[in-house]
UniProtKB/TrEMBL annotation:
<dbReference type="GO" id="GO:0008757">
    <property type="term" value="F:S-adenosylmethionine-dependent methyltransferase activity"/>
</dbReference>
<feature type="active site" description="Proton acceptor">
    <location>
        <position position="259"/>
    </location>
</feature>
<dbReference type="InterPro" id="IPR029063">
    <property type="entry name" value="SAM-dependent_MTases_sf"/>
</dbReference>
<protein>
    <recommendedName>
        <fullName>O-methyltransferase domain-containing protein</fullName>
    </recommendedName>
</protein>
<keyword id="KW-0489">Methyltransferase</keyword>
<dbReference type="GO" id="GO:0046983">
    <property type="term" value="F:protein dimerization activity"/>
</dbReference>
<dbReference type="InterPro" id="IPR036388">
    <property type="entry name" value="WH-like_DNA-bd_sf"/>
</dbReference>
<dbReference type="GO" id="GO:0008171">
    <property type="term" value="F:O-methyltransferase activity"/>
</dbReference>
<dbReference type="Pfam" id="PF08100">
    <property type="entry name" value="Dimerisation"/>
</dbReference>
<dbReference type="InterPro" id="IPR036390">
    <property type="entry name" value="WH_DNA-bd_sf"/>
</dbReference>
<dbReference type="Pfam" id="PF00891">
    <property type="entry name" value="Methyltransf_2"/>
</dbReference>
<dbReference type="GO" id="GO:0032259">
    <property type="term" value="P:methylation"/>
</dbReference>
<keyword id="KW-0949">S-adenosyl-L-methionine</keyword>
<dbReference type="InterPro" id="IPR016461">
    <property type="entry name" value="COMT-like"/>
</dbReference>
<dbReference type="InterPro" id="IPR012967">
    <property type="entry name" value="COMT_dimerisation"/>
</dbReference>
<dbReference type="InterPro" id="IPR001077">
    <property type="entry name" value="COMT_C"/>
</dbReference>
<keyword id="KW-0808">Transferase</keyword>
Length: 353
């Protein structure tokens, strides 16, 4: 055999496998959705021991379960390391939860199940189909598909607004634990109030207000989001538009907001942040992805993909590198900043006037 063409064939085979793997990646998300939808993690958890296929089947609320389909779903999920399996009595396979499926339980405080339901929602899936149109003509894939930009769509579609806000809230709970574990003193030194700009339904600020009772929490977001927000001790909800005015405060917290916007829009938002805080003692705590290429970071793939997600959904939305953050903050008159790494997808960027 010709060595050169043998190597070429091997490389082509790897390339072929690569394309199949990428194409079928969509099934990873949809299979997760299926498990959450059928409450399979809850069924196994409620059983309090590793669970057989027939026990899972009888826990699903349907008179006509396709048990063969369920078995194939479970085999795939075990292969993708979402559940663990072992041989039970009489060699019957039994399934248990692992670190991944524990995050898919519906009624625990720490869960990503609502994020799964949000991100695999057809509203999102349909929009991704228009990615090539965005590259060709500009404009977001979301608007090409749904005729509105993302936050106008959530204003007009209360069902998707709820699904989106729940998806955000569940990740906020997890990220806030990581933030508070590392950045304890960052809030201890603050006085008066903290305004969470674009705070969604208020989960993040409620955690801050609970952990630091000396601070008054203000959750600031668009009216259609605030109208769905639950009541939290120590938190006042304020409806408004961050492009117009941000309530005056000592400290601003802003998580996953600037990545939705272009540099020009970020400058408007950050300048409004600066106007809202005192020059001597104020600070803005930004929580965002800082793009870097650290080896062996389990979130690297997600950080890179997230930039494409922003491109698809928000006009000029993007994930930024440290240099890009530095330039933006400098342009808005922040004199210095610190980046604090936390065990999460995102980092803390504290900025001082
Ligand atoms: C990606 S979500 C992040 C929510 C929350 N900070 C979190 O991390 O879970 C962006 C938030 O910005 C809010 N938002 C968008 N435009 C806004 C505006 N003009 N004024 C205030 N909030 C806005 C959205 O309603 C949404 O809740």
């Amino acid at each position: 055999m010709n060595i050169q063409s043998g190597m070429e064939d091997d490389a082509m085979l790897v390339g072929q496998a690569q394309i199949w793997r990428y194409l079928y990646g969509a099934f990873d998300g949809m299979a997760l959705r299926c498990c959450v939808d059928l409450r399979i993690p809850d069924i196994i958890s409620n059983n309090n021991r590793p669970t057989t296929l027939s026990e899972i089947a009888s826990g699903i609320d349907s008179p006509s379960i396709d048990v063969d389909g369920l078995k194939r779903l479970m085999s795939f999920m075990v292969y993708r390391k979402v559940f663990d399996e072992e041989d039970g009595e009489g060699s019957e396979t039994i399934y248990s939860l692992n670190h991944c499926s524990k995050l898919l339980l519906s009624s625990t405080n720490v869960t990503l199940a609502p994020l799964v339901m949000m991100f695999t929602n057809p509203v999102i899936g349909l929009a991704i189909n228009a990615l090539s149109q965005s590259v060709k003509e500009g404009g977001t894939a979301f608007k090409h598909t749904h005729g509105e930009e993302f936050f106008d769509f959530t204003l007009l579609n209360s069902g998707f607004n709820r699904i989106f806000n729940e998806g955000m809230a569940c990740t906020a709970k997890i990220t806030m634990d990581a933030i508070i574990s590392v950045y304890k003193d960052g809030f201890l030194g603050s006085k008066g109030s903290v305004v969470d700009v674009g705070g969604g339904t208020g989960v993040a600020i409620s955690k801050i207000a609970k952990t630091y009772p000396h601070l008054k929490g203000i959750n600031f977001d668009l009216p259609h989001v605030i109208s769905t927000a639950p009541t939290y001790d120590g938190v006042t909800h304020v409806a408004g538009d961050m492009f117009k005015v941000i309530p005056p405060t000592e400290t601003i917290f802003m998580k996953w907001v600037l990545h939705n916007w272009s540099n020009d829009d970020c400058i408007k938002i950050l300048k409004n942040c600066r106007r809202a805080i005192p020059k001597e003692t104020g600070k803005v705590i930004i929580v965002e992805i800082v793009q870097h290429s650290t080896e062996d970071d389990p979130f690297n793939y997600t950080r890179i993909t997230f930039d494409l997600v922003m491109f698809a959904f928000f006009p000029s939305g993007r994930q930024r590198s440290e240099n890009e953050w530095k330039n933006l903050l400098g342009e808005c008159g922040f004199s210095h900043y610190n980046i604090i790494k936390i065990p999460a997808l995102v980092s803390i960027i504290e900025a001082f006037p």
